[in-house]
From TrEMBL:
Annotated organism of origin: Nocardioides albus
One Gene Ontology molecular-function label: protein-N-terminal-alanine acetyltransferase activity
Cellular component aspect of the GO annotation: cytoplasm
Protein name: RimJ/RimL family protein N-acetyltransferase
PROSITE patterns, sorted: GNAT (PS51186)
Family annotation (SUPFAM superfamilies): Acyl-CoA N-acyltransferases (Nat) (SSF55729)
Length: 171
């Protein structure tokens, strides 16, 4: 495996996070209230609070000191040991295995450290890159959700994937 690893976001990463949100395909990832480095710093601080409260865990995918992407799991279905995962890779690092490796690392963390049993994720059906990330990380396709997401007045179908703690680790 590569030298990629997960680490918590730090407030000093705010400028990198803000720049990442300006990249191609990132418009739907950027929260509406994040327009400045200070806003990004507050967002990162909020993620730390979410982790303390066991609501969500948000990690930067890094290689050495370089931030390559993000992995996030929300635990709002903790009563059923289910986590919902979202992820993205900075535009200049796409196609290098950042997403799939990061997702494998996050899944292992969720199963071993967070005691989750089922992990779910999904992507728009017109996003084959996200599909490749999920399947390479051992997430099986479970179905299509019709017109689930709304972006700029257009509804999009999504494809749902899941991985269980009892599934074999992908190669």
């Amino acid at each position: 495996m590569t030298g990629f690893r997960l680490r918590e976001w730090e407030e000093s990463d705010a400028a990198v996070l803000l720049a990442a949100y300006a990249g191609a395909g990132m418009a739907t990832e950027r929260p509406a209230d994040v327009a400045t480095v200070e806003d990004a710093g507050r967002l990162i601080a909020g993620w730390a609070e979410d982790a303390v409260a066991d609501r969500a865990y948000t990690f930067a995918v890094v290689d050495g000191a370089d931030i390559l992407g993000q992995m996030r799991v929300t635990t709002h279905l903790r009563v059923h040991s289910i986590g919902w995962i979202s992820y993205w890779t900075l535009e200049k690092h796409r196609g290098r295995g950042v997403g799939s490796t990061g997702l494998k690392l996050l899944a292992r963390h969720c199963f071993d450290e967070l005691d989750l049993f089922r992990l779910e994720t999904g992507h728009r059906v017109d996003n084959p890159g996200s599909c490749r990330v999920a399947t390479a990380a051992g997430f099986l396709v479970e179905g299509r959700e019709r017109q689930k997401l709304l972006y700029d007045g257009v509804r999009y179908d999504t494809e749902t994937h899941a991985r269980l703690a009892t599934d074999p680790d992908p190669a």
